[in-house]
Specification:
The complex is a heterodimer.
Chain A: E1 12-16, E2 19-22, H1 23-44, H2 54-74, H3 79-97, H4 111-140, H5 150-185, H6 190-220, H7 222-239
Antiparallel strand pairs in A: 1-2
Helix pairs in contact in A: 2-3, 2-6, 3-6, 4-5, 4-6, 5-6
Chain B: H1 3-43, H2 48-78, H3 81-88
Helix pairs in contact in B: 1-2, 1-3
The chains are: A mainly alpha, B mainly alpha.
């Protein structure tokens, strides 16, 4: 990807008819293969004893971190959400972290990938909300606090999806771009420093994407949560 | 000045102004948010987890305005549609 190109979509390796195999698709496949192979190899020798492999330890800490975060946000059993949120988090994290490998173009630096991820969040919010509260119960929340707010609620739903996509794209693209610009003007040490900074940004962006997806889904299933909190607080009062 | 010069100059100026002015607001906002969050954590260290998570979500929201400006200026610099149009018309 040279300095004129702002998206890995523009790097085309192979073209057949209307279909282009661009760098986004190729590196997405690479990341998928890596993640699937890693999971297969790690979970083949799982053990419940104390001398587990360090890879199993890594996966267990990631999963328990995700579960605790989801439990904090939703205030309920995380089983229902951990698959979806975990997929988002781990995929984005692996893409962003691999950006330090020279020659790897992170798929998240392309607006098509991030728009697709944001659209899955958009659908997941509706799906979890309808599953949880029923169609009418879900649609009724658009009329709150007054029916006059209906257009603003709908616009908010759409604009936050857009924001989700552009935020991840902008952050990752800026990381790639800054390294490319520094390679042109000061190629000795500075690109490495910015790459190291990119590790931090990539991690934070993956976390933010996952947390925002959680918050949006939680707000669509909120009534249950308020009731849950109330009962929990009441129990706390009685106990305390 | 001919069209190519005008469009080039306007694009570069607009890109610089976009990111320059666009960074001021989010920077002030994020500074304020972090200062408040630090004060809150200093008061209630037990709530650090939920404060940090809320802070990150809020920072992401604030920062997206700066990111919009950045994306617009990158498009103006590296993938400028007006520039491509003028070049394709042969100036």
């Amino acid at each position: 990807m040279d300095i004129k190109q702002i998206s890995p979509d523009q790097v085309v390796y192979f073209s057949m008819g209307p279909f282009n195999l661009n760098a986004t698709i190729a590196y997405t496949w690479l990341v998928m293969v890596l993640m699937v192979l890693a999971c297969i190899f790690i979970t083949r020798r799982m053990t419940v004893s104390e001398n587990m492999s360090r890879w199993q330890n890594l996966l267990e800490s990631v999963v328990s971190f995700l579960r605790s975060q989801i439990r904090d946000v939703f205030g309920e059993n995380p089983d229902r959400y951990v698959a979806y949120i975990g997929t988002l988090f781990i995929f984005i994290m692996v893409c962003n972290l691999l950006a330090v490998v020279p020659g790897f173009l992170p798929p998240t630096a392309s607006l098509s990938t991030t728009a697709a991820l944001a659209l899955t969040v958009f659908v997941a919010v509706i799906a979890f909300g309808v599953l949880r509260r029923g169609l009418l119960g879900y649609l009724r929340q658009y009329l709150k606090p007054t029916p006059m707010m209906l257009p603003f609620n709908v616009i908010g739903e759409l604009s936050r999806t857009l924001a989700l996509a552009v935020r991840l794209f902008g952050n990752m693209m800026s990381g790639v771009k800054i390294v490319a610009i520094l390679l042109a003007i000061a190629p000795l040490v500075f690109p490495v420093l910015m790459n190291a900074l990119g590790l931090l940004t990539g991690m934070i962006q993956a976390y933010i994407f996952a947390v925002l997806a959680m918050v949006y889904i939680a707000s669509a299933t909120r009534i249950e949560r308020e009731r849950h909190d109330k009962t929990r607080n009441r129990q706390g009062d009685e106990n305390g | 000045m001919d069209n190519i010069g005008l469009i080039g100059m306007a694009s570069v100026l607009a890109a610089g102004l976009t990111i320059g002015i666009g960074a001021v607001g989010p920077a002030l906002g994020e500074g304020r948010a972090v200062a408040q969050a630090l004060a809150a954590i200093a008061q209630q260290p037990d709530e650090t987890n939920s404060l940090t998570r809320t802070l990150f979500v809020g920072l992401a929201m604030i920062e997206s305005t700066a990111i919009y400006c950045f994306v617009v200026s990158m498009i103006l610099l590296f993938a400028n549609p007006f520039w491509d149009f003028v070049i394709s018309r042969g100036g």
